[in-house]
Amino acid sequence: MSQEKDTIENELRRQARERRDARRAAASNASVKDAAGNPPASGTTGTDGDPAAPANRASKSEAVRLLASLLAPYKCLCAATLVAMLFDLSGMLLIPTQLSMMINVAITTHDASEFMAHGVLMLVAALCGSIGYITSTWLASRLCANVGRDLRMRVYRASLDFSAGDFSRFGTGSMITRTLSDANVVQQTLLMAILMILPVPIMCAISVGLAFSIDTLMGWVLLTVTVATIAVSLVSVFATAPIFTRLQGFIDSMNARLREAITGVRVVRAFGCEDETRERLDETFSAYADNAIRVNMVFAATDTLAFFLMNAVESLVMWLGANRVGVHAMQIGSISAIIEYAMLILFFLMMAQFALISVPRAMACLDRASEVLRFVPEIRDAETCVSLPAPLARLEAGAKGEVAAAAPEDAAPAPIEVARFDHVSLCFSDADEDTLHDLTFSIRRGEVTAIIGNTGSGKSTIAKILLRFNDVTSGKLLFEGIDVRDVAQAELRSRIAYVPQKAWLFSGTIAENLRHGRADATDEELWHALDVAQASFVRELPGGLNAPVTQGGTNFSGGQRQRLAIARALVRHADLYVFDDSFSALDFKTDAALRHALTTELAHAAQLVIAQRVSTIHDASQIVVLKDGSIVGLGRHDELMQTCDNYRAIAESQLRKEVSHE
């Protein structure tokens, strides 16, 4: 029998490994698909012999498509910005044109009326350009702010669908950078592109055209200078583009290292690791600084060359212009117009260069955001979801001891068995063995099901698969008779109230935190939940329900945070209440009073209590004993003390500790 059992277990493990490998392959293929389900570009080598070239081109096209989709809802705003910019550029170019005419009139005809007419046109052009500039800047800022907001919301909403395994693929520091810093880079670069890059082709074309209309030689001079400046700008941009891409990776590293150092500062100080932590931070910061210095060196050389070109062009125009005036090929006032055209071209090209150097970084940020958006989550709702039976209403008041009928009379009655584990196994994608193996037990309405086991036995993992933070590898997990994989995640989680192992509170007030359980809960319901959770200390706080809560609830003790987290769960009308080691920070008296109150308050629902103290689960309807992810005992306390060696060892060790403390 033992040999046969070993054979069966080996076969199950082999099948689990095969399923895990299949999931890994599917995840690898899915993660590179785009939102439309198209596979990536072929990995064949390009003409340049670089295998990564097709991937780079594909990522750039993904970034461009993402930017186009972000701009698509604002077509009217884009058109209005372009029209305002045309007014700005028209006014800017009319001013030197009219100025040259005024000079020519003053020198040749001395006609005061014609002189004044050109002056009025200059004033109109200045007003038109100023209004166009202010309007285009305001419209562009609004457009870019909307795009930045939409990008942040898309990345954030996509991350909400990620499982714990999906999130770990990117990392917390990287996700923070992608959501905040990368979106800001895209927003600012888009604004610079609209205000600094977009006007360049219009300005160059019109200025060169006006120069040719004045004198052909001057036209060729401006055209040559324009092409040379564009070439210098493009060289600097292509030289710095790979460095900017690496800089985003360094920002991720700095974010992760800083977050780790700040979060674990007490541990660092306790073990005297300040020097090692400082060296790690210095290494990351130095790598970023070295690359940033390389970029700035390229910019410094480019700026120097650009200013040299500006002065050289001005000197060249004046020298050639004097000769052209001498041979009567052009008037003397036209020299000022040509100089202004040249300065405007060079000024806009320099500004465009400042914007262009940020474009590769923005494209890298868009590509990183696109990676998140096109990533296919490991856990997804089925194409056709099954609705759960109508829920029972919770007790109107815990002391009444009766259940109010919230479901319609013709609705199917809620099943007694709220959840059932039917030969459930779970193996994480990066693990070689099952974390949970062949679990079979039920969680019934009106009963307390407890789970106990040694550290690392998989107790909290059971709560995670109930909430579909992870999906089972084999077997079935049924919630009210329906496989959880066939139920929409939002509906499933709305029927479960969860108190996590680490009681986490959000910054705000106590009332705002409690209403995370149910947004429309009244103040009376909040006070009732606090009383049941033995959180009477809230009544003594200044402000009561409006008392402030810091991030993580750090202004409360561990026991107070746990009781507030329990009260938040009690506010929700749920069929199953999961308490994941939620009584560990409570003293024995408060623990006993809370469990007694919960027995009456949650008589209509099922309770799953994950605990490490035997005293917490002594009176549970059934106790599941876990060891290495497998069930080694199932029954009540008295039964397990007789039949389960692991449970008896845990109970006796805790009893000895209590006696020794006494």
Write the layout of secondary structure elements.
Layout: H1 2-31, H2 52-71, H3 75-107, H4 112-160, H5 164-170, H6 172-197, H7 199-214, H8 216-263, H9 265-270, H10 274-326, H11 333-356, H12 359-374, E1 417-426, E2 436-444, E3 448-453, H13 459-466, E4 474-479, E5 482-483, H14 489-494, E6 496-499, E7 508-509, H15 510-514, H16 523-532, E8 548-549, H17 558-571, E9 576-580, H18 588-601, E10 606-610, H19 614-617, E11 622-627, E12 630-635, H20 637-643, H21 645-661
Parallel strand pairs: 3-10, 3-11, 6-9, 9-10
Antiparallel strand pairs: 1-2, 1-4, 4-5, 7-8, 11-12
Helix content: 55-70%
Uncertain segments: 1-9, 23-55, 393-414
User: Biggest β-sheet: count, sense, barrel?
Assistant: 6 strands, mixed
Task: Describe the strand arrangement of the main beta sheet, using strand numbers.
Answer: 6-9-10-3-11-12
Per CATH, which architecture of the largest domain?
Up-down Bundle
- Helix vs. strand class: alpha/beta
Kindly report how far apart the N and C termini lie.
Answer: 47 Å
Strand content: 5-15%
CATH class of the largest domain: Mainly Alpha
Number of folding domains? 3
Helix count? 21
Strand segment count = 12
CATH superfamily of the largest domain: ABC transporter type 1, transmembrane domain
What is the CATH topology classification name of the largest domain? ABC transporter transmembrane region fold
Give the overall silhouette.
elongated
Radius of gyration: 35 Å
Mean pLDDT: 81
